[in-house]
Amino acid sequence: MKDLFDKIYKDKGPLGKWADQAEGYFVFPKLEGPISNRMKFQGKEVITWSINDYLGLANNEEVRKVDAEAALAYGSAYPMGARMMSGHTDLHEQLQNELAAFVKKEAAYLLNFGYQGMVSTIDALVNKYDVIVYDVDAHACIIDGVRLHQGKRFTYKHNDMESIEKNLMRATKMAEKTGGGILLISEGVFGMRGEQGRLKEIVALKKKYNFRLFVDDAHGFGTLGATGAGAGEEQGIQDDIDVYFATFAKSMASTGAFIAGDKEIMDFLKYNLRSQMFAKSLQMQLVVGALKRLDMLRTMPELKAKLWENVNALQSGLKERGFNIGTTQSCVTPVYLKGSIPEAMALVKDLRENYGIFCSIVVYPVIPKGLILLRLIPTATHTLEDVEITLDAFSAIRERLENGTYKRLSAAVAEAMGEAV
Q1: Predicted pLDDT at 421
Q2: Structural contact between residues 189 and 219, judged by C-beta atoms closer than 8 angstroms
Q3: Which residues pair with 152 in a beta bridge?
Q4: Sign of the CA dihedral 398, 403, 409, 415?
């Protein structure tokens, strides 16, 4: 019999094997200073493109004042206990009602965390007789929720309507055998590619197939739609989303999340979401802070307008310079380059050290081998000057990638470490 930890000692995983070279710089980096378009990284100022503070609320003076006053009034403990037992308040209900109205649903229910809440919501919505159909590129929280499912599940090719319909047909046959139902899960905005889920076309399939639609709109909430109600509003099908999910960690610049839908569905979920039934209630200062943030989303459209001014400047500038940004339809701005993981590490170090640009790097296994994805998240706090500096920097690093500079640099590092690239 093997020691349980044998696999840990022998195989660190596709990302963990790079820990010695990457940790503290490429992964688990430490950004310092007030959250904004410019922060400090290892003592140097950098233009920051890796913070999901879309509307610039994280360091907004009014928001910080409300947060501070709420913390002073309630502390970090109140309310104590799970909401079902002792942690329920009028302010939790007020926030739920206002969120439901904002996303045009009958009711909403607060979640302590987005990731945890998504996993638990999937678990509560289905039983072993039901079938789940979901996008192969779904976020990790969706995948982990699906893993809990004891019944059948089918993945469809990313945003591929032919594949979606094919898998709905398979799911229908299976559900007819088991006597269960079908839950289709899509993201409103896919966080790596920036593409919107094909929600309008998925909803149209309800005329042919009997399924319910669950949408994770973490990146769409607050950024898309005429009022900021998200990808469903943007595509004109918000009413047809059966369960709507969004997190406070993006546009709201806070902690927490919520689900919304018909009142009867929300009533069922609040009595069956294990992560909420057996966990401490969302802290009061977060609830009060979320009420303030939501009010700003409703009453200050200039925040979203400034965000999109920056998004359009960045994305159009990248395309004009010949960069591949895929088919993004959101604020998420991916830049695809060709190269190895060592080349990617050399490239990102150059960006940070010599050009003062900090953005997230994504490599295999998240994307296929041989590709480098640099993900930029524009916010309302960025300036057009930030955009121009970044465009110039990206043109320079692309030239160095294509002329082999980063390949030579990574080979030299590997040789010094006694490793093959």
Answers
A1: 41
A2: yes
A3: 131
A4: positive
Cα 364 from Cα 387, distance rounded (Å): 27
Please name each of the domains of the chain with its CATH number: 6-54+301-416 (3.90.1150.10), 61-299 (3.40.640.10)
Amino acid at 388: E
CA dist 42 and 221 (Å) reads 32
Residue 418 has pLDDT above 80, yes or no: no
* CA–CA dist 254, 218 (Å, integer): 12
d(CA 46, CA 42): 10
What confidence tens digit (pLDDT) does each residue in 366-384 have?
A: 788 899 999 999 999 999 9
Region at 371 (left for phi over 0; alpha for psi -120 to 50; beta for the rest): beta
Q: pLDDT, tens digit, for every residue of 267-314? A: 999 999 998 899 999 999 999 999 999 999 999 999 999 999 999 999
Strand order in the sheet with 257-261: 107-111, 257-261, 243-247, 212-216, 182-187, 131-135, 152-156
Radius of gyration, CA atoms only, the chain: 23
Examine the pLDDT at 361 and tell me if it is beyond 60: yes
In this structure, which long-range contacts are made by residues 135-139, counting pairs with CB atoms below 8 Å and at least 24 apart in sequence? 135/159, 135/185, 135/186, 135/187, 135/190, 135/197, 137/190, 137/192, 137/193, 138/185, 138/186, 138/187, 138/216, 139/187, 139/190, 139/191, 139/216, 139/218
Beta bridge partners of residue 333, listed in sequence order: 376
User: How many Å apart are CA 318 and CA 265, to the nearest integer?
Assistant: 44
| Chain mean pLDDT for the chain | 94
- Per the CB < 8 A criterion, the answer to whether 368 and 235 are in contact is no
DSSP code for 240: G
Beta bridge partners of 245: 216, 259
